[in-house]
Amino acid sequence: MDSSMPKASVRAYAPASIGNVSLGFDLLGAALKPIDGSRLGDEVEIRAANAYSLEVKGGFAHKLPADTKQNILTQCYKHYLGQAAKQGHQLEPCAMVLYKNLPIGSGLGSSASSVVAALDGLNHFYGEIFDQQAMLLMMGELEGQISGSVHYDNVAPCYLGGLVLMAEQAENIALNLPVFDDWYWVTCYSGIKVSTAEARRILPQQVALKDTLVFGRQLGVFVHALHTGDRKLAAAMMQDVIAEPYRKALLPGFDQGRAFAMQEGALAFGISGSGPTVFAVCDDLAKAEKINQWLSTHYIQNADGFSHICQLDPQGSTAKKV
């Protein structure tokens, strides 16, 4: 690739995601798409420049460090160019703009969304040097710099779309699973912050054998139910025996939200990632609307909070010339 050639600007979008999906701690993730057409995710613009620069805009830009050297996008840029150099590509600098639309510490894969939008955008801007698996490896590594450990349950669905099972094999990091298109995912962010590191510290270092067996059985049966189209069986497996019993203490109003959602016919109710965002799965739009209204009124804690009725986003991140 001739890195000196003029390049069109690129705009990339990466959706919010649900990590764990209750039953699949660190092994399942789902990309979200609000049904009203609104965008729930971060966006990155990239254009040619004489020197690297980063500008941060958007509703949650003020929550990020003022020094852009500390921003994960700067790390994404350096890492991408470093990996490209190893393959013999000497790339010209670019200017980046991050539209930070997702709240930090929300349980919606906020850092993953920034990482995926940045790296997917850079790869399109520079002529798609890397394939999908190489990109996922980079995304996991960069996300790990923020959360403290490499895990793919946000970056993989954010990048690939849909519902994803982590295989974490060198040539096959993540597997897309069948989904039920008629399920609605009511997703409510309370407005408070729960850091991934804090949410991991609250967990026990060891899991009881009985809980480990339940975890394995639920995940295996859930994947089987998806492949056989058994909605009832899949929904019955969506319970978190690993993290939720401990993490719900960090989420004011969680038990009340669950009680209302299940009473109103939700198939499942759980914590999105580390929280405080919660999600309710419904097979009926009217039920989803009622639960969405209740969570908007009773679970949201401040002006930063919001609630959306979503379905799973089959596309994942997108990047296009502008």
UniProtKB/TrEMBL annotation:
InterPro entries: GHMP_kinase_C_dom, GHMP_kinase_C_sf, GHMP_kinase_N_dom, GHMP_knse_ATP-bd_CS, Homoserine_kinase, Ribosomal_Su5_D2-typ_SF, Ribsml_uS5_D2-typ_fold_subgr
Enzyme class label: transferase
Pathway as given in its UniProt record: Amino-acid biosynthesis; L-threonine biosynthesis; L-threonine from L-aspartate: step 4/5
Catalyzed reactions per annotation: L-homoserine + ATP = O-phospho-L-homoserine + ADP + H(+)
UniProt cross-references to Pfam families, sorted A to Z: GHMP_kinases_C, GHMP_kinases_N
Superkingdom of source: Bacteria
NCBIfam families: PRK01212.1-4, thrB
HAMAP family: Homoser_kinase (MF_00384)
Protein name, UniProt field: Homoserine kinase
